[in-house]
Amino acid sequence: MIKKTLIGAALATATAGAAVAADFPARPIQVVVPYSAGGSTDLSVRVVADAFERLFDGQMVVRNQPGGGGGIGSSAAVHARPDGYTLAAGAQGPLAILPLIGGTDYQFDDVEFIGLFARSLQLLVACADAPFSDYDGFIEYAKTKAPQIGNSGAGGANQISAEAFADAAGISIESVPFNGSSEARTACIGGHIDAMVASPAEAKAASESGQMTPLFVMEDARIDLFPDTPTAVEKGVDFTWSSWKGLVGPKGMDAETLAWLRDAIKQVANDEEFKKTLTDMGEFVTFEDGEAFEARARKDMETTHDVLEKLDMLGMNN
Fold first, then answer.
1. Tell me: the pLDDT tens digits for 273-289?
2. d(CA 171, CA 311)
3. Cβ–Cβ under 8 Å, residues 316 and 69
């Protein structure tokens, strides 16, 4: 009798759980953006929210929680109740870099990867008065003297990419951190550094005005915006890098809810209106499911680990 009662209770619990999952979402889903309003991650997530509401007749609320280089907002989402109603914008810095530098109360394996919807591509550009003007000239110069390469901040994604490329290419560089990409761009245009890591949007306007010269794209194939600019891969260096944007959440969500969220972000990323809006904003729309997204993030974390170890920055904030 006791055994039958226990079985009945288990079935009732399972049925109730299925009913809850079938009703998801029953209230607004909150997405924490770990940066201030108005940045590229914030604007991209708001486009996601608009598409979500249009496609699913539900509500997605964007909440900005900046601080700690993205670690504060990411922590809030990672430690939220795992019911699917609190997610976060999954960005490279807070997930693949900050936990290695230290000072976060979460680690990579605390994160549930839901889906990637966009990437921000990167180029290396020569600055005004640089002693090189193309990829081959840059490599030749770097064989005898370390070029000064500007980035948007010490330990940030732009420094990681430049240092990782240098390792892959077997050259030496001198990283010059600035307080944000705008300061680095000003120094580059003024000829105070040799090169910098830039976004396609930054590089396009500056190259057309003769203030910067694209050297190579950090992709595995050339991009439409710079059809004449080579990739490191075609030059024989196995190196790619891009920043990325996706949705993540806390571990422990039930399988039905997680599956629903993953399917939802897939539909959003493949929606034509969404793709056009994000493309017009300068983003490279790319869908990857949770598994592929996690694999990309883990690979970037491993690359970051090697760079930070070389720079003696592993765990520096612990």
1. 999 999 988 899 999 99
2. 15
3. no
- What b/e sequence results for 299-317 when a residue is b if at least 16 CB atoms lie within 10 Å of its CB, and e otherwise? ebbebbeebbeeeebbeee
Q: Which fold has domain 2-120+242-310?
A: D-Maltodextrin-Binding Protein; domain 2 (3.40.190)
Kindly state the greatest CA–CA separation across the chain: 87
Residue 58 has pLDDT above 80, yes or no: yes
Q: Does domain 123-217 have CATH number 3.40.190.10?
A: yes
Q: What is the mean pLDDT of residues 157-183?
A: 93
pLDDT tens column, 172-197: 999 999 988 889 999 999 999 999 99
Instruction: Give the pLDDT band (50/70/90) at residue 39.
Output: confident
The predicted-structure confidence for 91-102, as pLDDT tens digits, reads as follows 999 999 999 999
Nearest CA to 98 out of 160, 42, 174 is that of 160
Reference 246, options 262, 259, 257, 234; nearest CA is 262
Residue 108: how many other CB atoms lie within 10 Å? 16
The string of DSSP codes covering 174-235 is EEEE-SSHHHHHHHHHTTSSSEEEE-HHHHHHHHHTTS-EEEEESSSS--TT-TTSPBTTTT
φ/ψ of residue 173, rounded to 5: -135, 165
